[in-house]
Structure formats: C-alpha cells, structure tokens
Amino acid sequence: MFANEENVESIDFAPYFNSVHVLPQESPDKLREIENFRFQIYCRECCFLPESDYPDGLERDAYDESSSHFCASNLRGELVGYVRLVKASATAGFPFFDHCQDLLPGISLPPASESAEISRLMVHSAYRRRRGDTLAGVTILDDSLPSEQERRDKSPQILLSMYRQMYLYSVATGIRYWYAAMEKFLARSLGMFGFDFKQVGPEVDYYGPVATYLADLRALEAAVSQSNPMLLAWLKQPSGGVQIRSEGVPERFQAKF
Description:
alpha+beta, Aminopeptidase, 6 helices, 8 strands, 26% helix
C-alpha cells in the first residue's frame, strides 16, 4: 500500500456508469451486442472500416480471440462504452505492430507476456456532445483548469469506469504494461487525469495521426498515489452493482438513444 492511500476520502469517479469484464463463452448475446456497437461506431459513424465487410452488422477481427473485453452501461443498463485488452498470441502480436513497427530512439519494449494493448476504445455518440470530445469520451483539456473539483467535473466517467475494470483484470492476471495507439492530445488529456502514457513510437496515419504509447502500471500507481490518492483507492476497489434508474441523474448523463 502506498503511503497516501490510507484514510483517503471515498469518492466515486464514475457514479452514473458501471463496467464489467465480458466473457464471450458465458455471455454470447452481450458479445453480439458489443460487436454491433463496434460496427455502428467504427463502420457507420466514423467510417474507419467499410460496412460491406460486415454484412451481418457485427464488427470483429482476428485479435478478438486473444482479447479480454470490457463494456460500460449507464444506469438504465444501456451499452455506452467498449474497450478490449489485446494480449500477444502465438499467431498474432499486438495491433500496433500492423501500423507502427518503428520505435523512437532509445526505446526498449517490456516482455510481451506482461503486456497488453488497449484497443477499440469507444464511447457512444450520445456521450460525446461537448466540443472537443474524442471517440474515447475524453474532452480535450488545457492547463487552465483552476481546481481539482473542476477537473473532476470534466472527468471522462465512462472511460474511467472501463479503465478500472481493465486495471483490476491486469493486476489479477500479471499484466503490468499497457500499449495504446492514440492522438497526442488524447495522451495529454489522459495524463492530466493520472494515466501517464509515454510515447514509444513515431506518429503514423492510422484512422488519423496517432503514435504508440506505453504505460507501466506500477509507475502509474506510484504517480497517482502522490497526485490523486482518491483516484488510486477507487481504481483498486472492485465496483459493486448499480440500480438501474434515471431519477436524480444529471441530464448530461441521461442519453436519449
């Protein structure tokens, strides 16, 4: 336990969302819902992938077999976010190998057996209504946020909810390092909320200009224990069940699908 974890105030950083680890063999219907969610966003909304390649309206790829899947729901039980952690397998490496195999000078990658890549991170468009919101549901921020309260009010709740499940899963399964291919401004915004990713690859064109980033979860824990011990305490605590309701939920979280 880090020194600042003791006697910290209890705060729920994602009170209006609940995330779970989805096991395909146990929840095939949920997996199909996720694949359609991916199709709607990646193929129809963003046009990253051609719709014609997925005539059944279900977006899937070769990396799904070696992935752990996580999704977020709002308090009415509606699917609002998805992300997967891709582990290297005997037949496939990490997705970022497909578009960026070069590294920045002096970079050495950690063992593949202790690593996973954050992939297909997306949030429903109903929760991306503010100017500057990214596909991941993060609002692009600057350094002018005057207080911790304002920073918390602007926090990406859906992303944080899913990150907590990925973090708990990673700790339980021996994953220490996270890769992510993302835009520079997204990496910067995540860093302001405590998720410090270091750029390890050059910028390339992959659904737009992105670079490969790497986070060491042990270093992240140490940094967040100093900068935001309440967030670290929350990340380490498994989320409980939530009651499906809409009363008392701020209007900005009551998406109309």
